[in-house]
Design brief:
Belongs to the aldehyde dehydrogenase family. A 7-stranded mixed beta sheet has the order 15-16-17-14-13-19-20, with helices on both faces. A 5-stranded parallel beta sheet has the order 10-9-8-11-12, with helices on both faces. It contains 14 helices and 24 strands. 36% of the residues lie in helices and 21% in strands. Helix 2 packs antiparallel against helix 4, helix 3 runs antiparallel to helix 6 and helix 4 runs parallel beside helix 5. The chain has 2 domains: 231 residues, Aldehyde Dehydrogenase, Chain A, domain 1, CATH 3.40.605; 196 residues, Aldehyde Dehydrogenase, Chain A, domain 2 (3-Layer(aba) Sandwich), CATH 3.40.309. The protein is an alpha/beta fold.
Amino acid sequence: MQSILPLPVQGIKPGTSTGQIFWHNESSERTIESYSPADGQLIARVYTSTRSDYDKVIETAQAAFQDWRRWPAPKRGEIVRQMGDQFRIYKKELGTLVSYEMGKSLQEGLGEVQEIIDICDFAVGLSRQLYGLTMHSERPSHRMYEQWHPLGVVGIISAFNFPVAVWSWNAMIAWVCGDVCVWKPSEKTPLTALACQQIIQDVLRNNEVPEGVSCLISGSRETGEWLSRDPRVALVSATGSTRMGKAVGSAVAERMGRSLLELGGNNAIIVSQHADIDIAIPAIVFGAVGTAGQRCTTTRRLIIHESIYEEVKQRLARAYQQLRIGNPLDEVNHVGPLIDQQAVQSYLAAVDEIRSQGGRFVVQPGVVEGDGFESGCYVKPCIAEAENHWPVVQRETFAPILYVMKYRTLEEAIGLQNGVPQGLSSSIFTLNMREAEQFLSVAGSDCGIANVNIGTSGAEIGGAFGGEKETGGGRESGSDAWKAYMRRQTNTINYGTTLPLAQGIKFDL
């Protein structure tokens, strides 16, 4: 890790990182200890930000915004382009750190860094396409148009499961829009955030970017509450559980701020009798066990047509027997650990609840023990026959538990798919055009993402990412998600010699 973390990993204090790394020297001795779920080893102790640290960071960010917003958007895009080049250089090192600190497979860790690179490329093009509209005025010799201006300070609260990619979805877009960013990473993965700041520091310094454009604060729930309640923070983008999102959303709304919420998912795949089962099986397995079930887009429910129910169930059971569980840095393994012991306990509690509600396991659950599993964070991906209305099925358990159920009609299947509080990602496997179109119609999936013949996870950065209902309604990444980071302004110019009023109103003096 030395190539991306030349600073000592013991006792690093986060602050702002632009023209230089800016580590505050306050008196706080509180630290976050980062343990790898792969082997249980202590990776680093990272100092948490005090309230004094936090206020200084926000003040520095506010000052930077006054300058940064005046930089032409294509010039801001050039900074992001150079960042993308830096992440290309350090893709292997950062991807390895992501895998080791978070526990996802090395391939997924590398893929997460690739997402940073991809969003940098997207943002560079976007920097020349922050379009407004021109409208025809009802008044003669008048022109109307709209333009978009940066918001100011954007707070980013990210989750452990995608410790660097989700930050980049927000930060790269916010930066080309002219905003400055204050990032509060998950307390479970603080080191990857420090690594990202290290990687971009030379770009920011060499281009004389104002100190405070990229800021980092470290801490627990209290630190996120500072961001949420701070009127100096124009937008808070928060990724995490629905419970956390409700707290953030209400705190931001109370001060009339803006929030962008990416919260829980309870995603389903419908497998039609017209499906190509050969491509459905690997999509289901990857969706259900990738990142050990710790993705917001993880496949948690499988809704199978009754005519092929037994066949699909048996093929899945055979596929699960081929899964290799172990150290995520070993590329022969498919499934790594859960993030910590608390996550393991949540998994076990869900298993007990499934049994108490009448569920039957097709593939048995359990904790993996023995040599190489000393961290105690490895669990067995499992499959349970269940009913959609059961409380345990209605909730999101962040673990590799897949619920299977059968249906008769497509309308019934769509009803099951939509019959949960969350609305992030959904999928149908079918070769029947009518079924596919019905699933994507207004009477079909109620999720923010709806796929045909691909799984629920693995979204590309070109499309807007996000969901409905308790998933929060936010949109990040591609398409026109950039509008969340800017404020719209409608302008009217009178270039005539009279003052006609709108709606034909007369006001003669």
